[in-house]
Design brief:
about 500 residues; alpha/beta; seven-stranded mixed beta sheet
């Protein structure tokens, strides 16, 4: 009976270790399993779900899933309409969050997300829970040794999918220690009748303001710059629908909500209240205002523990994240990889990637493929293409590939063109890798939003070691496979394809 209840993956040696049981760790494990790579998954949590076991604080997600989508569950096309389910290679493996949603909204609740991840784990990913990663070192033979609360684990490669879970406050604001962080908030009813000042105008700040709106008597959000485009543009319409619109309605009807472009100069406690000293940034002004509560929605950091001692460097991007190459690996320490929300620290051609499930589930799949290729000799399939098929294939991908639409300007469909060997589909790859790679001539396509929010297919042509970028015309119906697009791409590839 003891053996039946013994948790999986006892301390020992494994080819690969995955640390974390959030969506990133679960997706990586599933993909490693499908590639035949033996590995172990450990987690300090008592169950699957990662941050979704506690967050978002006020229950409902900003990422949406359409219960009645016009595509089959588990299909590649269905990923367009389902931002929250993990990816599978076999439709029979699919666990859809739709089966756990009560139909009240296309934005699932935190509990519904946790339930769907638990079902995915029970079906596909064994995890050793209650096992905390504590220290990391490199053995003389080059393997990694993870010291945990259960004992030592050795591995050739390790994937840290530990989330971005440590509260971070800017140390440059005097008095910031008096302020509660957004990850430490109490139940919303605890703020009934209070005036609230929120430092920040990112997604977390608007989530908090929306959650406190029925309770607080006054809400002020402030940061030096304007709200980021990811909040205010239609490219992530869910954020506007969930948070911005309710706040705007209250701002119009009265003084309940105020959004300022201002720097928080300092914070002082005055009795039971907090005095906030503000300085306008878009227009010159100074002001001091007292509030009942101040909340720092100023970012979160990755729990790095002793990884910096091994050479893992970090960047500050609303907190602290590990530096990563285009394949989400540590450039300075071969064999260390990252998965999940941490992958937003990898810079692409036009910026950083999304830290939400709909985007990083593709990164996690590619991390598994890269580990299999680099450390275990895995050779990915490279289907051949005929010259006349290249243009329609790439434009069809630009129009419909969920990988490209959920990881815009970060992932691309790549094709190599070798005059002697032929034309090959290299699959979905990081765009930065294609641009920097010393490889045969080829072409890659992705999509991105321009400054006005319009979507364009973007083609990168590599010829004779040089890569050129070509932005194709937009289309109001998001159809990039029109005759004019065909003619434009045919013209770009004419010299390569003959």
């Amino acid at each position: 009976m003891a053996k039946l209840t013994e948790p999986p993956f006892p301390p020992g040696s494994y080819p690969v270790m995955v640390v974390g049981s959030g969506p990133g760790g679960l997706q990586t494990s599933y993909s490693l399993k499908r590639l035949g790579i033996a590995h172990a998954v450990i987690s300090r949590d008592e169950g699957p779900g990662g941050m979704f076991r506690q967050y978002p604080i006020f229950d409902r997600l900003i990422s949406w899933t359409k219960p009645n989508a016009p595509t089959p569950k588990g299909s590649r096309e269905g990923e367009w309409y389902d931002w929250n389910s993990l990816l599978v290679d076999d439709p029979q493996d699919h666990i859809s969050i739709v089966d756990f949603m009560n139909g009240a909204s296309e934005f699932p609740t935190r509990a519904e997300m946790e339930q769907s991840l638990a079902a995915f784990t029970n079906a596909h990913v064994p995890v050793r829970y209650g096992c905390s990663w504590q220290k990391t070192r490199r053995a003389d033979d080059g393997t990694f040794v993870l010291e945990t609360s259960d004992g030592e684990y050795r591995c050739k490669a390790v994937v840290f999918a530990v989330g971005v879970t440590e509260p971070w406050k800017p140390p440059t604001i005097p008095g910031i220690e008096e302020v509660v962080h957004s990850m430490e908030l109490k139940a919303p009813q605890e703020y009934a009748g209070k005036s609230i000042y929120i430092i920040g105008k990112g997604t977390a700040a608007f989530e908090i303001a929306d959650g406190l709106l029925p309770w607080a008597s006054q809400i002020v959000l402030s940061s030096p710059g304007e709200a980021p485009p990811s909040v205010v543009t239609h490219s992530l319409a869910g954020i506007r629908a969930r948070y911005m619109q309710p706040l705007e309605d209250h701002a119009i009807s009265g003084r309940t909500v105020t959004v300022l472009d201002a720097a928080t100069e300092r914070i002082e406690r005055v009795g039971s209240r907090l005095l906030v000293c503000l300085k306008g940034t878009r227009k010159p002004w100074d002001m001091q205002v007292e509030f009942d509560e101040v909340v720092a929605a100023t970012g979160v950091a990755t729990p790095m523990l002793d990884l910096p001692d091994l050479g893992v460097e970090t960047i500050s991007r609303g907190g602290k994240l590990p530096v990563q190459n285009p394949f989400w690996a540590c450039p300075a320490v071969p064999g260390i990889y990252f998965s999940g929300s941490i992958t937003q620290g990898a810079r692409g051609i036009r910026g950083y990637g999304p830290g939400a499930v709909h985007g990083f589930r593709y990164s996690s799949r590619l991390v598994a493929q890269q580990i299999a290729k680099i450390h275990f000799g895995y050779t990915p399939q490279r289907p051949s293409l005929k010259p006349g098929d290249v243009t329609p294939y790439l434009l069809e991908e630009a129009s419909h590939a969920p990988e490209l639409w959920h990881q815009r300007a970060l992932l691309a469909r790549s094709v190599t063109i070798d005059k002697e060997l032929g034309i090959f589909d290299e699959g979905i790859v990081p765009l930065a890798h294609f641009v920097d790679e010393a490889a045969p001539d080829g072409v890659a396509v992705t999509v991105f939003n321009d400054e006005e929010g319009d979507l364009h297919p973007v083609v990168y042509v590599r010829a004779d070691g040089k890569v050129d970028e070509h932005i194709l015309e937009s289309n109001i119906m998001l159809d990039f496979a029109t005759p004019s697009h065909h003619a434009e791409l045919d013209s770009l590839l004419k010299g390569m394809l003959g």
